[in-house]
Amino acid sequence: MTTSLPPDGEPLPHYVSATPFDPYADEQAKDGKKVFKQASQFQLMFWRFRRHRLAVASAVVLLIAYVSIVFIEFLAPYNLHTRNMDNIYAPPQRVRLFHEGKFVGPFVYGHHMTLDIKTLRRVYTDDRNNVQPLRFFCRGDAYRFWGVVESDLHLVCPSQKGDFFLLGTDRLGRDVLSRILYGARISLTIGLLGIITSFLLGIVIGGLAGYYGGVVDLFVQRVIEVLQSIPSIPLWLALAAIMPADWSPLVIYLGITFILGLLDWTGLARAVRSKLLALREEDYVLAAQLMGAGHWRIIGRHLIPGFMSHLIASATLTIPGMILGETTLSFLGLGLRPPITSWGVLLTEARTINVLALYPWLLFPVVPVIVVILAFNFLGDGLRDAADPYR
User: Fold this and answer.
1) pLDDT at position 22, please?
2) What is the pLDDT of residues 256-268, one digit of tens each?
């Protein structure tokens, strides 16, 4: 083997790179990102989900909502049961920053109430000479944090002798914003408790039908068909009417959760059944059987994880149905009842056309319902797309 020399006869300089050899260097992307070929399934799903900006924004909204329910007592300006008898049906107050061209900071104007004799309606007018600066991280109404710790610290409070009703008040002078915040704790958690009940029934019953087949599958399918043939609203009414009126609010809350879970497991059971019917014929299931694995181990360790992403997407689409179910029952007066406060209970204040015409701010509890339902649906779309990153 000969070595070529330059015209002047001197050998060319020889360099050896000290960089470790990378067999995948030629597969690296130009922007320096890790190639998809080396990524795990979770990384592929995360990258795919991150590209769905609407789903990411929805996830942030839901994360903020569920974290905030832990600190509801601190976030609410007033206690849940505080009544302001001088401000019955008071309209929402506008937060301002400037008074007569000067920066004052966040404040509201005080108001005067007069009674319209012809319509018997309370009319509130702003008092421009009564500037009421808002206080932050302040002492206000006393409360028991999660029913345990005594405190009176709030994020925002009205001035010492003023009022602050960002979303107005109801027929008893209670702050609508505070009651919406307290209602979020019930309405958001009832979806989670209901989905646990629904998933336990759906996965277990659907898993048995899909894995064993035969008589078990036939029986489960007939039961599902019978339950799905019953109209949902009359069934809700009948099950809710079973609960005695003298039950404690906590028992009624748990009862409504259990009812919602009982009504929603059939669709998930069919989805689990169809998935298991396809997966049980795979080679790795046969290998597990030959190695002596039991039926429950095969179902729980090999089959269910195979479509866990589908279950997660189903959960995000089922929870909104639970929230709407509780809101519907409570709105009809057959679900949760005072003193429990949920978004459905708050909407019972706006059941008459008279109230809607005179005090439309009592419809504000429907806004978080819509926002949460849309956020769950968008999040479900993003998770469903991310579950199949190779598509």
Assistant:
1) 59
2) 777 777 777 888 8
Kindly tell me if the per-residue pLDDT of 155 is higher than 50.
Answer: yes
In order, the DSSP letters of 274-287 are HHHHHHTTSHHHHH
Tokens of 326: 């509780």
pLDDT at 19 over 80: no
pLDDT score recorded for residue 372: 92
Asked if 269 contacts 197 with a C-beta cutoff of 8 angstroms, the reply is no
Cα→Cα distances 154→75, 77, 79, 150, 160, Å: 6, 6, 10, 12, 13
343: left (phi over 0), alpha (psi -120 to 50) or beta: alpha
* 102-116/121-133 β-pairing: antiparallel
Res. 187: pLDDT tops 90? no
Q: Which two tokens stand for residue 374?
A: 């849309």
Block residue for tokens 């669709």: 267
Amino acid at 33: K
**Is the confidence at residue 32, as pLDDT, over 90?**
no
Cis amide prior to 339 (ω within 30 degrees) = yes
Distance, in Å, from the CA atom of 368 to the CA atom of 348, rounded to the nearest integer, reads: 15
Q: What is the model's pLDDT at position 29?
A: 46
Using the structure block, give the residue that is written with the tokens 């046969």.
Answer: 286
Closest CA to 293 of 211, 214, 217: 211
Nearest residue to 110 (alpha-carbon basis) of 162, 68, 157? 162
Contact 331, 348 (CB under 8 A): yes
| More confident position, 132 or 146 | 132
Q: Tell me how far apart the alpha carbons of residues 354 and 358 are, in angstroms, rounded to a whole number.
A: 6
pLDDT of residue 30: 45
In the predicted model, is pLDDT for residue 148 greater than 90? no
Q: Is 273 helix (H, G, I), strand (E, B) or coil?
A: helix
Helix ranges (DSSP H) in the chain: 41-51, 53-68, 72-75, 176-212, 214-229, 232-242, 249-279, 283-290, 295-297, 308-331, 343-347, 353-358, 366-386
* 256 touches 329 (CB < 8 A): yes
Least confident of 162-166, 224-228, 246-250, 288-292: 246-250
